[in-house]
Amino acid sequence: MKVYFRRKPKLLGNYTNGNYQVSIYEDGTRIKETIDPQETKFIADFPDSIDIKITNRCDMGCLMCHENSTIDGKHSNTLLTSPIIENLHPYTELAIGGGNPLSHPDLFNFLEKIKEKKVIANMTLNYKHFVDNLSTLQTLVSNNLIRGIGISSNDIDDNLIYILEHYPNIVLHIINGLITPENIKKLYGKKVKVLILGYKEIRRGKILYDANKESIDINKEWLSNNISEIIRKIGLVSFDELALNQLKVKTVIPKDKWDLFYQGGDGQSTMFVDLVEEEFAKSSISKTRYNLNNVKNLDEALSIVKNEENGN
Fold first, then answer.
1. Distance (Å, rounded) from C-alpha 40 to C-alpha 20?
2. Is 12 left (phi over 0), alpha (psi -120 to 50) or beta?
3. Residue 270 to residue 126: CA distance in whole angstroms
């Protein structure tokens, strides 16, 4: 089984993981190809990518925040010393988030450390934090300490569209149920990259949903009913596993294209690590959490997550 994309920019690196080979490119493209062409599934020995939370501190107070981040939230105190980080495989992709990851005092040293290990760092930020820290982010990007940036915003303005169209390694993160038809239509015809996230009904996200169920459900229904048009009219659209399920994306994608592009669900070659609470899980919304201190490395952690996935 092979996964291809339309163009291949500069190759950053490649590696073998379980029964497949991976190539990582400068623009964030990941190509996975099974060693045996007859194989129909990717079977990983270690995570290709990790959603990693390094702080719970944030001054935004976003009503949908499923992490309950606050202005006095805790930072991870093991960011530079965790054995989990020491044992990361080269070219593992880290999606670094929080809270506001820029608020962590050890962030620069952490990024330098993982760069030396050839680990690929991406970061997700609120739109306001992105705009307020442009100089810092330009330094991080120019020194290859960050490869990609996710900007979280459900309000679309001309400045945001300009940023998305002129910086190729920036992806807009929008949330099913919170993005309105009016805002998503502003992206039609634009050469932008968009990641649609599922709505997470946990912590503050549940409180917000309970208080605004009718309007959120209307937005969800519109998005689901128009997903084919959205895919056609926006430059590049991708989904997290929760959004794939909530929007029933598989029903509108031809089988051959689904088989070509789908790289597996949460817990198969990806996982969530919370370095603030020293826990890991299949994803950030998993109710089952495991203690990081009880595993030697993330190879072992992924095995535990995969056993949960298989019902063992």
1. 11
2. alpha
3. 23
Those residues whose C-beta lies under 8 Å from the C-beta of residue 138, and which sit 6 or more positions away, are none
In whole angstroms, give the CA distance from residue 267 to residue 93.
Answer: 15
Exposure pattern of 84-111 as b/e (b: 16+ CB <10 Å)? Answer: bbeebbebbbbbbbbbbbbbbebbeebb
Q: Which of 139, 146, 88 is nearest to 120 (CA)?
A: 146
Q: Output helix, strand, coil percentages for the chain, rounded to the nearest 5.
A: 35, 20, 45
- For 55, 72, 140, 269, 283, the CA distances from 185, given in Å and listed in that order, are 33, 37, 32, 33, 30
Q: Which residues pair with 149 in a beta bridge?
A: 123, 170
Long-range Cβ contacts of 289-292 (<8 Å, 24+ apart): 292/82, 292/84
DSSP state of 26: T
Tell whether the model's pLDDT for residue 149 goes beyond 80. Answer: yes
| Distance from C-alpha of 127 to C-alpha of 164, rounded to nearest angstrom | 11
pTM of the model: 0.94
Q: What are phi and psi of 100, to 5 degrees?
A: -100, 105
pLDDT in tens, 34-82: 999 999 899 999 999 999 999 999 999 999 999 999 999 999 999 999 9
Q: Is 94 in contact with 81 (CB distance < 8 Å)?
A: no
Pairing relationship of beta strands 170-175 and 193-197 according to DSSP bridges: parallel
